[in-house]
Amino acid sequence: MISLFAASVPVFQQMLGAQKDILEKSVLHIAQKKIDPEALLQARLFPDMFPFVLQVRVACDFARGISARLAGIEVPQVDDEAASFEELTKLIDTSLAFIASIDASQINGKEESEIVLRAGTPKERRMSAQDYLTSYGLPQFFFHVTTAYAILRHNGVEIGKRDFLGMH
Predict the structure, then answer these.
(1) What are the backbone angles phi and psi of residue 129, rounded to the nearest 5°?
(2) Which domains does the chain have, with CATH numbers?
(3) Scanning 19, 129, 151, 156, which has the fewest C-beta atoms within 10 Å of its C-beta?
């Protein structure tokens, strides 16, 4: 049986680490192809979807928020208005540092604890920590990480599945 911690924090660390490496490859791509960075930062898969820059920010938000909620601690407030590749890298570093501060003992054994989303609003949802992670948190996180990857790949950044997974 996999623990709640093992299914969350190390996954976020792997994927955000991979996303950080992909950002570095994107910066090299921009320099080599003499592309305006804004072209990639504001790129979208479709007009009604978030641009790349927001996909990365939201992925970081989910990684921090999910980890904090599972640990039963306050979700950290960070300056997540990152608008450049350098600022996105710093946001990932901040997110990774926070996630690394959470110990397995803060999460494991809390599978049945209640997580309340959007408390006090008409959209309030209550679920067990395990359901929150597996049915809501991880799918949301992976949606944004995958979409960020797809935007860059679609725009010619030479990355592949090994980059997405953080396998070098």
Answers:
(1) -60, -40
(2) 9-165 (1.20.120.450)
(3) 156
